[in-house]
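Please fill in the sequence for the structure shown.

STRUCTURE ENCODING:
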């Protein structure tokens, strides 16, 4: 019995050690997760359209809405002057979409519909057929259909009452709301080579990517710059390069990570990479709080006095409290974990930590790129 327990205990310890070692080991990342193939890029489409059926919540008769309504009616054989129309049930919207590479005619795209006028909501509206254009002003898709607005507005703010609103009722999304009418030509093989573009440009990562590809396909990859790695396609794969691209995307490597600290002042979020280093320095941290309170006192004359009047006199109290602060030395810290532990030991808040990081950067003690959002 003791032998079995000892064996199980040794096994658990061994598994724990393996888990710890594995957790600290660098795990490779697939090429497809950090890079894209040149030529296989999406394109943006835009179009101007009309949403109808808004039950009095549409645009308040702007000239462009009335003119678009008149143009739409004229296409259907009804000719009326724009000034004779009313647009309370209609809203002018901008329709946007993104068309991936190699999408064929008849495929469906998701679109976003956004009001550009003063309509209150697009809820329960219907988008009329809208042509979507590319940057070259060519037609690539058409959108039409019912609009799904994941929001609501309740109440009567105009009458002086309260209003409750969730999300944005003037922006809607249509799943599969557009149909592709023209395929965008795309070419991934140029002069017998494929170019792989890193999403995060970095010379070290580019060199590692070329080395990883050469390890799988010898003497085929060359790092051109911090973004581009050019790969020569084997002659046997020139006719059908898709399989070769799939094998390239499955190659794993460890991309380099720059020392960087990103600070979002609005949310108090701080993100630091593992390569962040701080040289030996000293940090003094303390808060000064000043409170100013203004009150009104009433001064009254004594009872039965003659000629006295009651007066209101303001009184202001000012208090200043400063927390005790000490100059705390911080030794040279090799990892971001120790940096965070040292700053947390000071009891600072995230916003105070931002100020400390900025002061360290100005003092030259912080060896990382500091990015403010």
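FILLED IN BY: designer on duty
SEQUENCE:
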């Amino acid at each position: 019995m003791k032998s079995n327990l000892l064996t199980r205990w040794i096994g658990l310890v061994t598994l724990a050690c393996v888990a710890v070692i594995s957790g600290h080991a660098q795990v490779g990342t697939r090429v497809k997760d950090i890079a894209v193939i040149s030529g296989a890029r999406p394109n943006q489409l835009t179009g101007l359209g009309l949403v109808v059926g808004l039950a009095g919540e549409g645009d308040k008769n702007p000239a462009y809405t009335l003119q678009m309504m008149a143009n739409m009616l004229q296409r259907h054989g009804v000719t009326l002057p724009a000034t004779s129309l009313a647009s309370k049930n209609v809203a002018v919207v901008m329709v946007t979409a993104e068309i991936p590479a190699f999408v064929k005619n008849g495929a469906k795209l998701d679109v976003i519909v956004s009001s550009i006028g003063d309509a209150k909501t697009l809820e329960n509206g219907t988008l009329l057929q809208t042509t979507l254009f590319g940057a070259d002003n060519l037609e690539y898709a058409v959108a039409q259909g019912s609009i799904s607005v994941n929001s609501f507005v309740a109440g009567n703010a105009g009458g002086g009452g309260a209003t409750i609103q969730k999300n944005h009722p003037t922006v809607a999304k249509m799943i599969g709301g557009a149909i592709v009418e023209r395929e965008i030509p795309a070419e991934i093989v140029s002069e017998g080579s494929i170019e792989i573009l890193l999403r995060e440009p970095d010379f070290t990562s580019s060199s590692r990517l070329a080395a990883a590809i050469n390890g799988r396909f010898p003497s085929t990859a060359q790092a051109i710059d911090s973004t581009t790695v050019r790969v020569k396609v084997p002659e046997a794969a020139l006719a059908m390069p898709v399989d070769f691209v799939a094998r390239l995307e499955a190659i794993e490597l460890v991309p380099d990570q720059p020392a960087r600290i990103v600070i979002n002042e609005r949310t108090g979020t701080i993100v630091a990479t593992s390569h962040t280093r701080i040289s030996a320095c000293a940090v003094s941290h303390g808060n000064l709080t000043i409170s100013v309170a203004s009150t009104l006192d009433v001064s009254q004359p004594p009872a039965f006095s003659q000629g006295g009047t009651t007066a209101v006199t303001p009184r202001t109290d000012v208090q200043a409290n400063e927390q005790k602060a000490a100059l705390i030395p911080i030794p040279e810290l090799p990892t971001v974990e120790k940096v965070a532990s040292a700053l947390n030991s000071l009891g600072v808040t995230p916003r105070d930590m931002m100020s400390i990081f900025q002061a360290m950067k100005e003092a030259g003690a912080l060896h990382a790129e500091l990015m403010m959002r």
